[in-house]
Amino acid sequence: MTAAPTGPAFSVHDIPFSTYGSWFDISPVVAEKTYAEDLHLVSHQNGMHGVLRLVPLDPATGERAEARVEATPGLLSWTGEGGHVDLAYESPDTVRLRGSGLGIGVFAATQTLTPFSGTYFFHDPAANGHVFTSYETGRRYRVTVLSGALADPTGTQALGSGDRGLAVTAAADGTWELAIEELGTSRPPYASSAPFGEIVEAAKRGFRDFVEAVAPWRSSATPAAELAAYVVWSATVRPTGLVTRPAVLMSKHWMDKVWSWDHCFNALSLAPGCPELALDQFALPFDHQDDSGALPDSVTHSEVLYNFVKPPIHGWAFGHLRRRLPTPPGETELAEAYGRLERWTDFWLTARRAPGAELAHYQHGNDSGWDNATTFDPERVVVTADLAAFLVLQLHELAELAAELGRKNETRRWTRAAEETQTALLEQLWSGDRFVAQGVAGGDTWSSSSLLDLMPIVLGEHLPGEVAGTLADHIKAHLTPYGLATELTTSPHYLADGYWRGPIWAPATVLVEDGLRRAGHHRLADDISARFRALCETHGFAENFDALTGTGLRDRAYTWTASSYLLLAEAHAHRDSH
């Protein structure tokens, strides 16, 4: 019999099967928007690479067998007419497979081997295992047959092009079992840590413990909470390479990085139940802060990019984060956060302010996180209201931190800077009806139909009431049945799959909902939260969503979307209970 599933079922076409800490997943998604016929072992070291192809086999013919794939957090199964294959993670770098009535083929995903690319395959007599070495990942993948009949491997020690791999079918008792490990140059021969059933149970327990920690409030009113927790749990990797801490990647599809604003939403969702992991998420980009104080655009296993930055939402995020932690940070932790936020703020106030300017500017839409928003159509080097608003919040957070650390002069300095920045924002960019953007080169101003122009609502209680009310009215115009369209759906620039020119995004939703609530517009905030939660419950945790149909777009397993659902669902559950 196949092992009993537990937890929410999901499609591996949408969400990769993986485990906490692992740098690889099992999925048919092998590259951006590219779906293979078979499931692959897909590594995220040195980029995203489909390394091994996993093929259920008809034991009578040795040919590929048709099989239905089912997945729950602890167990992946292929089920065909004649039998089944089960796969579970024994550890972050090892999966165990067991089958009955169906065999399994483990083949190199690419056929061509050159001196600089591809996969070499050989039998390692010292470990009694078959090894695939991948140029792309720089890692080895060792297959150890624990029971069953091994057919003659194909392509051992072969160079050039051709199939490489092995096939395993049942032994006399009708079953087979093997292990696949991702490793460096060498390790002792594989030794089983437990029977397959116990491995499945341990995997299930690992996820159950996580979901109990991050979503103890879940109920039938928050039906997507467990799956959201799985998306975050399964996308978490252990420290390796340039990833200095346990990290929640944005996805174990092709968006397999930590971008320097996405991480804030993951940190916030994790804070009450997994405080250490939450603090690691917040701190990771700051580990790569450069000499100017700038954060990198993104961090991944073997690459840190500095060609763009991301918006300074970190003061807003840290203020929420430290209040959500079960134990408030101590003086040492506060001082470290203060120093990092100070340098990040000084970057914006020096490197990103033109001579004589009071307000900072972006150099490209990518700096804002809203890459192609219509705000940036006239020019790209632009002073925008969202940036000024985020800096005001960051300056207020620095003032609060300075006060808690007993630094009175710095408290006064940051408070004055926050007031001056907000005054400049309202005097220079508020038109009386909406905020405008201003080109740095010539001083021209313009407005757009982008929700980005309304993001100063994040100032919440700091905004004059009439400004907050006007912004709230404009925000209502962006509401569709599914949430906040990032471009007005009536705009000539609206595109259903236009990235930031229409689709609904999680971070904008959370930031707007929070600002509205702090500004006293609770009914509208409730409505936005309800629509976004219903969207995720129906359409999953995609990178973004079609604003008019709700369909998930782009990467379908995005952690900041899952974390945003968890944040909004938790807050809703707590409001409901009072």
Walk me through what this model shows.
With 578 residues, the chain is α+β, with helices and mostly antiparallel strands. 32% of the residues lie in helices and 22% in strands. The chain has 13 helices and 28 strands. The protein has an 8-stranded antiparallel beta sheet, with helices on one face. It has a 6-stranded antiparallel beta sheet with strand order 1-2-3-8-15-13, with no helix packed on it. The longest helix has 22 residues, at 408-429. The protein is elongated, with a radius of gyration of 26 Å. The chain starts with 23 loop residues before the first strand and ends with a helix. The relative contact order is 0.09. The model is unreliable at 1-5 (pLDDT under 50).
Which SSEs are present, and which pair or pack?
Blueprint: E1 24-31, E2 34-43, E3 49-57, E4 68-72, E5 75-79, E6 84-91, E7 94-100, E8 103-108, E9 112-113, E10 119-124, E11 129-134, E12 139-147, E13 149-150, E14 160-161, E15 165-169, E16 175-183, H1 196-214, H2 225-234, E17 236-237, E18 247-248, E19 258-259, H3 262-270, H4 275-283, E20 298-300, E21 303-305, H5 314-324, H6 331-350, H7 365-368, E22 382-383, H8 385-404, H9 408-429, E23 437-439, E24 445-446, H10 465-477, E25 479-480, E26 483-484, H11 506-518, H12 522-539, E27 544-545, E28 552-553, H13 559-576
Antiparallel strand pairs: 1-2, 2-3, 3-8, 4-5, 5-6, 6-7, 7-16, 8-15, 9-14, 10-11, 11-12, 12-16, 13-15, 17-18, 19-20, 20-21, 22-23, 23-24, 25-26, 27-28
Helix pairs in contact: 1-2, 2-13, 3-4, 3-5, 3-13, 5-8, 6-8, 8-9, 11-12, 11-13, 12-13
